Amino acid sequence: MSAAKRTKSGHQARSVARLAAVQALYQMETGGAGVEAVIREFEDHRFNRELSEGSNLAEADEAFFAETVRGAVERQVEIDRAIAGHLADGWKLERIDATLRAIFRAAGYELISAGNPPEIVIDEYVEIAKSFFDGPEPGFVNAALDAIARDGPKSDGA
Predict the structure, then answer these.
(1) Could you report the average pLDDT of every consecutive run of 10 residues in the chain (158 residues)?
(2) Number of alpha carbons in the 13 Å side-chain half-sphere of residue 88
(3) Looking at the DSSP assignment, which residues form a beta bridge with residue 20?
(4) What phi and psi, each to the nearest 5 degrees, are found at residue 47?
(5) Predicted pLDDT at 114
(6) DSSP alpha helices (H): ranges in the chain?
(7) Side-chain-side CA neighbours of residue 133 (13 Å)
(8) What is the DSSP letter of 57?
(9) Residue 67, CA distances (Å) to 19, 61, 99, 110 in order
């Protein structure tokens, strides 16, 4: 396999993992399931499954998925504080759609943990937002994540 093909494949696996992380965080918030149970469900029943005869889901970076979900949960207070700091006056995080909160939390974890280039993280999660919303939400995601990225990662590991 060529280096270019591996890079594209690795990028796609990360993209699939990011979408799955958003879905897992949404599921946890709306269904009340715990982080390890949801990660296990995705690993056992959603990844690397055949959609129909001969058609498989795109491969996910399962380790990255699990790290993102766990990290978003472990650092949720910090992430929520960062998100809330970039909402319009009078808006509270609770007023935002649960899907948007899941997008913000997954992206927020990546941005504050300084593991990936902010431009890539923002672009990926804006694309995820576009897959869920037809209105102004992707622009809102872009602006808020850009502001969070400009604030920079936190080095205290809190």
Answers:
(1) 47 90 94 90 76 59 94 94 82 87 95 86 96 93 92 53
(2) 4
(3) none
(4) -85, 150
(5) 67
(6) 3-31, 35-41, 62-74, 76-84, 98-113, 118-132, 137-151
(7) 18
(8) P
(9) 13, 10, 19, 10
CB atoms within 10 A of CB 86: 17
Check if the beta carbon of residue 93 is closer than 8 Å to that of residue 58: no
Would strands 50-52 and 55-56 be described as parallel, antiparallel, or unpaired?
Answer: antiparallel
pLDDT at 102: 96
- Residue 27, both tokens: 């599921």
> Are the C-beta atoms of 21 and 65 separated by less than 8 Å?
yes
Which CATH number does the domain 3-151 belong to among 2.60.40.10, 1.10.940.10, 1.10.3720.10, 2.40.40.20? Answer: 1.10.940.10
Contact between residue 63 and residue 10 where contact means Cβ atoms under 8 Å apart? no
Instruction: List the structure tokens of 15.
Output: 């993209």
